[in-house]
Structures are given as structure tokens and as C-alpha cells.
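I am sending you the entry underneath: sequence plus C-alpha cells. Let me know what the C-alpha cell row says about the fold:
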Amino acid sequence: MKKETIITAIVFLVVGFFIGYITEAEFNWNAPEKMAPSSAAAGPAEAPGTGTPNGAAGRMGNAQLPRGHPPLEVANKIKELEDQAAQNPRDPAPRLELGNLYYDQHQFDHAADWYQQELALDPNNANARTDLGTVYFNLGRFQEALKEYQETLKINPQHEPTMFNMIIVNLQGTHDLEAARAAWERLHKQNPNYPGLDKVKESLDAAIGGASGALPRQ
């Protein structure tokens, strides 16, 4: 997928907020394992100068780019993929790659547009749909994020990164602790060893408050 990534970064934030960062932020990220990792791992953009004949020259050139502009090699890749998408209007592949690239640059509005285009051509791509949900999370559009996750689970009811991201969005986004707890219990039942689940449980326990509302011990 790419951005199961949500919410990895988020998990660290969540824990820090209640017991003291969103999980690894790639829900690493870069996301809620930006949420757990997806088809294209979210992560930092390619290092300036990477892939150029002269590393120093590449770094210097990138340093002179306007603030917020992607590294030249990323910008070139985006242009290449946009050309491919224009030439192949029925091909979802370049649209998915563009969504992933823009996601990694934290240009979430652009990422959302390309994920939407990909899904219009390939509506049963569970990973892309969860990535779109994670983009919505990062844009503060929490209900839309949850809607995409629900659609993902219709496609693949065992999609664990989506279950995990639903916990985070309900906990940190909508603050619906009952829904967060239900999502936690669903994932715990399927895979009690899912990475980050223990940390999220601690945050939920703290948010719910007290032993009476605490989640069951594993």
C-alpha cells in the first residue's frame, strides 16, 4: 500500500500526548504508520543530489529551489509520470505512483487528486483506498478518512493497516473513544501482535480514563 504509513508517526504522537508524535509517520510519517506501511513506503524524499552525476552540484541546485519545491529528481519524476498519465488515460499505475510521490512530499491535496483518479480506474485497490484515507486524515478531513477505510474493509475485511488507522483517526481525529475502542478490539482479535497495538492501547486506556474503562490486558 503506501501509506499504511498513517499512522505510524501518529502512534508515537498519540502515546506522547496521553502519557507523558502520529505513528512512524509513513500511519512514520508520515502518517497516522505514514499509517502502517502501504504499497509504496512513505518516507523522506530522495536526498538532494541523489542520482545526479555530481552530488555536490545536485545539492547546491536543490538548495536554490523555492521553499516547498520538491528535489529536482522528484520533480522530474513527477513530470514524467504526469506525461504518462496524460498519454494513457485508462492506466491507473502512473496515477498511483503520482499519489505516492506527492504523499511523500506532504503535498496532500495533490496526492488526494491522483489517488482519486487511480481509484476511478481501479476501485477495488484496497491499498490505494487506504492511502487516500490517510491523505484525508492529514488534511484534517477525518470523516472522509473513515469513509475510505470503511470502503477498504468492504474490499478486504482482513486489511490490518486499515483497522489500525481507524483506531488512530477515531482517537486523534474525531475523538470518538467508543469507536476507537471497537476498532482496537477488532484488530486485536485478528492479530494481537500487530505492531504498535500495545502503544495505542496505552493511549486509549489513558484517554478513556481509569481501570473501569480500560481495554482488556493482552
User: Anything to note?
Assistant: The radius of gyration is 18 Å.
